[in-house]
Amino acid sequence: MEKLRAALAECEKALEITRQESDERQDSLLRAYAELDNERKKALREIDKMQKFAIDRLLIALLPIKDSLELGLQTAGDTLNPQSLSQGMQLTLDKLSTVFADFGIETIDPQGEQFNPQYHEAVDMEPMSDVPPNTVCHVQQKGYVLNGRVVRAARVTVSTVPQTEQH
Question: pTM of this prediction?
Fold first, then answer.
């Protein structure tokens, strides 16, 4: 009987050690879950912050262009010289084009190119004998690509084969 009691005491001791280890592992697992949840929440806060302020570099680059446009409007009333007004507008447009290039924005201006539905939106068709069919013969609105993705397709008129008059 003494051996059984000793064996039972040993089993109870082993069971208690196993319970302590189990509690420690459970506690460790709960801490890991909590840490993972905190990291997830932190990442979501960072993503939200990035989304809110992702365009601040672009905005900073565009502000001088807005300033130029406002200054141009102020001086336009003071001058009757259309050439200086045109030059000012061209300088402002050049600044904007530079900002676009710096931020990976490309212009789609497909005049004379083969129609491509990935980059062009056909808004009209025009029968033309001097231009091959499916050629962009007029760009109504330029398109734009941002880092390889079309943001706005160019709106174009596409040439078609003229219909011959039948007698």
Answer: 0.64
Interval 78-116: pLDDT, tens:
666 778 888 888 999 999 999 999 999 999 999 999 999
Strands 149-152 and 105-108: unpaired
AA letter at 150 = V
